[in-house]
Amino acid sequence: MELYLKITYLNDFIFCPLSIYYHQLYSDLAERLYYDDAQLNGKAAHSAIDEQRYSTHKNILQGIDVFSEEYKLCGKIDLFDTEKGLLTERKKHIETIYDGYVFQLYAQCLCLREMGYKVNKIRFYSSDDNKVYDYPLPEDNPEMFEKFINTNEQMQNFNVDSYEPKSPEKCAHCIYNDFCDRPLAPKAYNGGF
Ligand code: SF4
Which has the closest alpha carbon to 113: 101, 123, 105? Predict the structure, then answer.
């Protein structure tokens, strides 16, 4: 059986590879147990898309399932305009375009292409301040594309048993801290960073 990892795990993996396992393990529990308010707020921005309420235009695909055999990834896209070949990932608020955001957008783009769609342009949309951030396609940013490929390979081949966490600061701010079997810091840890 072939395993496909979720596109959203790329973001978790960058934060801490172990968090993928806690994400998976607790994903069926009530979200309030382990998502803080800011994260729930961000998820709400996505819910309109996930429930396909955003647009009724025929050329707009919303929240559809996508997958890539080549990269062993699957997930959902936010919005894809099939006429323009324009892929948009909405976020509640964007201050910085983190690598994790880009990797997820690249993954969506590559999945769509493997499924036969033509993607000409990719971008982020920050809904709080109504700002659009165009981003270069994978082939136009070889350095970032290489980073994506390396991160995905590491994620696909990750060995959970041998992983040792490295950052007490991350552990202190990690939403899975209370469940984790090897945190470097208790939840209330605040010092020194
Ligand atoms: S508590 Fe630390 S080691 Fe555990 S998942 Fe979070 S960041 Fe990773």
Answer: 105
- pTM of the predicted model, to two decimals? 0.81
According to DSSP, the residues that pair with 74 across neighbouring strands are 6, 67
Domains and CATH numbers, the chain: 5-162 (3.90.320.10)
- The neighbour count for residue 105, using CB atoms within 10 Å, is 24
Q: Distance (Å, rounded) from C-alpha 174 to C-alpha 193?
A: 15
Q: Ligand 1 test: best mutation among 175, 176, 189, most atoms within 8 Å of CB?
A: 176
Q: Is 23 in the pocket of ligand 1 (CB under 6 A)?
A: no
Mean confidence (pLDDT) of the chain: 85
The whole-angstrom separation of Cα 21 and Cα 19 is 5
